[in-house]
Amino acid sequence: MRMAVPPNLVGFVESAGLAGVAYGPDSQEQISDVTDFLHPDVKTRDPISLWRAGRDLFIDGWAEMGRTLVALADGADLLVTGQTYHGVVANVAEYYGIPLVGLHHVPMRVNGQLSLPFLTAPTPVVRSAMRALWWVYGRITKDPEDAQRRELGLPRAAAPAAKRMAERGSLEIQAYDEACFPGLAAEWNGRRPFVGALTLELPTDADDEVASWIAAGTPPIYFGFGSTPVQSPADTIAMIAAACMELGERALIYSGVSGSNRIPHYDHVKLAGLVNYAVVFPICRAVVHHGGAGTMAAGLRAGIPMLVLWDVADQPIWAAQVTRLKVGCARRLSSTTRKSLVADLRRILAPQYTTRAREIATRMTKPGESVAAAADLLEGTALRRFG
């Protein structure tokens, strides 16, 4: 197996016992760039500069990635691509004549089940928005994709990569549970198999210490915003501490802040680094997070209510599903205040949300089953190539 990943994730891949090769731009830097691109001040930019900024976000490193992947895929039986830069991978798969599999952690194809937290009549609006986004993405990536295909000696593409993948019958694995999007499995009728969220559930050095702190008092509320940039970590921690103090709750806060000694100490608050969600979440009372697919799945599997404070990328989609599933509520991170946080926490701590979260947990695929199902699908696709 050969893993081509952003340079900042090579260490993570190697920690899991695999060989990783740097491929494309730094994903953490991209997240920061996307956040800046979607900042409210973006409204003041002229359309041309806005288009160029958006284009640069999606085509950065395209040619280099294509050349790297050509070398890595030589002799491979199968190529697997994520949700971004799939055009690069589709062209290389076509060049070698090998199967291509898409791995999606959120619904990427146009459908009638998606919602967004700021729409009251979402389905037709979101369906139209998805079509428009795919069209825009196709236009943005057209020039670098055409250049890659010329370099590979392939004919000019007649359709965007996503459409070509569908026409080719490429397998598209849905790495989330069908329970998260009621009705989607029936709409797709088996064409895009669901396996559940994929996670390694790796232990961390902090797990025992955190579990000991939790056991010494009442179950806390976990707060963590993953890779989403937080403008002022110290102010955010202070806001969380004040809200939990008002509610009489303890708070376990993920903090990657350097120099945390400058942050005031609170008796009811513990700051922690990376933890194993599979161990920690089930012994927490609730979870407040950014709406990332991995944290969302861990919270649903743990059967605890959640508050999603969303910002960019797929986070609004998961925020809407939390409300739709009635396991919690959601709000945009930038509009969160101490007062709103108190109100939202008081709401999700009501008994009906805990009951509903436990019910949804019974519908979630076990982590080991998800990994096995995905592996079976990949192996089956590779074997079919040989008849």
Task: Please outline what is shown here.
The chain is an alpha/beta fold and 387 residues long. The chain has helices at 10-15, 27-37, 47-59, 62-73, 86-96, 122-152, 161-168, 184-188, 207-215, 233-247, 277-280, 293-302, 315-325, 338-348, 351-361, 367-384; strands spanning 3-5, 20-22, 79-81, 100-104, 171-174, 221-224, 251-254, 269-272, 286-289, 306-310, 328-332.
Can you offer a commentary on this structure?
With 387 residues, the chain is α/β, with parallel strands linked by helices. It has 16 helices and eleven strands. Strands 8-7-6-9-10-11 form a six-stranded parallel β-sheet, sandwiched between helices. It has a three-stranded parallel β-sheet with strand order 3-4-5. The chain has a two-stranded parallel ribbon with strand order 1-2. Helix 2 (27-37) runs antiparallel to helix 3 (47-59), helix 4 (62-73) packs parallel to helix 5 and helix 10 (233-247) packs across helix 14. It is globular and about 65 Å long. The two termini are 21 Å apart.
